Amino acid sequence: MTDVFTVENMTYMLGGMKLTLEIAVCATVISIVLGTVLALAKTYCKGIFSPLSIVASIYVELFRCTPQLLWILMFRFFVKGGGFHLGVVSLSIVSAPYICEIVRGGLNNISKGQFEAGYSQGFRLRQILLFIVLPQAFRAIIPSLISQVASIIKSTSLLASINIFEYLFTCNTVMLNASSISGIFIVYFMEALGYFIVCYLLIVLVNLVSRKLKFA
Amino acid sequence: MLESLLDPWRWERSLQDFPDYLEGFGMTLRVTAAGWLIAMCIGILLGLISTKQNKALKAVSRIYIQFFQNTPITIQFFFFYVGVPAIIKQLFHMSKAYRLSKFVIGIFGVGLYHGAYIAEVIRSGIEAVPGGQKEAALSQGFTENQAMAYVILPQTLKMILPPLTSQTLALLKNTSTLAMVVGLDLMYYADKSVGYTGYFQGYLIAAAMYFAVCFPLAMLVKVFERNAARNPELKRKKKKSRGGGLI
Question: What is the ipTM of this complex?
Answer without folding.
Answer: 0.88
